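Sequence only, no structure available. Ideas?
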Amino acid sequence: MTRIGERAPDFALPALGGGTFRLSENKGRPVVLYFYPKDHTPGCTAEAKAFRDRYETFTAAGAEIVGVSSDSIESHQRFAALRLRRLQLNVLESLWSAKLSHLDCMH
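Reply:
I predicted one. Tokens follow.
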């Protein structure tokens, strides 16, 4: 299990805007990595909006905000368009068991 303050193992996942997000490409830059279980749910929408509304504060500190969910990229696109408006976060599609099981984040 990765603990607070420890370096997370590298991973690569499909990203909302196309392409792939690789943690290693952000080396030396703070990354706020948050996990949420499902697009379009009230709690997950509130969490994503809270990050969106404070986006400038995080980027002013040099941080990248990255949301990870097991939903598909297509679901993330609908979620961003319908619920979040002006989403500037990286939202990644995840196959929990194959890609992120070593982070011990969703059990």
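The longest strand covers residues 64-69.
Hope that gets you unstuck.
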